[in-house]
Amino acid sequence: MMSYDELDPDGPSEADIERFGAESRLCPECGADMYDDSTFCPSCGHVLMSTDSSGTPPWAVIVVIVVLIAFVLVFVR
User: Fold this and answer.
1) For residue 34, what are the β-bridge partners?
2) By residue range, what is the domain housing residue 67?
3) DSSP class of residue 12?
4) Domain count of the fold of the chain
5) How many whole angstroms separate alpha carbon 33 and alpha carbon 55?
6) What is the pTM of this model?
7) 33 touches 41 (CB < 8 A)
8) Burial of 67 by CB count in 10 Å (0-12 exposed, 13-18 middle, 19+ buried)?
9) SS3 helix, strand, coil % of the chain, rounded to 5?
10) Rounded distance, CA 77 to CA 67, Å?
11) For residue 67, what pLDDT is reported?
12) Contact between residue 76 and residue 68 where contact means Cβ atoms under 8 Å apart
C-alpha cells in the first residue's frame, strides 16, 4: 500500500498529520486537500474566506453611513 506522501507529494506529510492532526478541508477552487486553518490553497493559490466572522460586515457599515446621511439631510436644515 502506498503512503500518503507518495499519493500526494504536495500535500501535508505523514509527520505533519501526526503532529497537527488530520484536520483538513478541500479547496473549493481546485479540490486539493489542505489544512483547515489555511488562508490560501498551496496548490492553486485560491484565497479562502475566514470561517469565523469576528468583524462587522461591510454591508452593516454602509447601512449605518446611509442612515446617518439621511438623518442629516432630513433634520439638519
Assistant:
1) 25
2) 4-75
3) -
4) 1
5) 28
6) 0.38
7) no
8) exposed
9) 40, 10, 50
10) 16
11) 95
12) no
Cα 20 from chain centroid?
19
State how far the Cα of 77 lies from the Cα of 69, in Å rounded to an integer: 13
Cα distances (angstroms) measured from residue 29 to each of 42, 47, 54, 66? 11, 9, 24, 35
DSSP state of 50: P
pLDDT in tens, the chain (77 residues): 556 556 666 776 777 767 766 677 888 889 888 887 788 888 898 888 755 556 788 899 999 999 999 999 998 76
- Cα-only R_g, the chain: 22
Grid cell at residue 19:
503532529
Helix (H, G, I), strand (E, B) or coil at 60: helix
At residue 52, the pLDDT reads 56
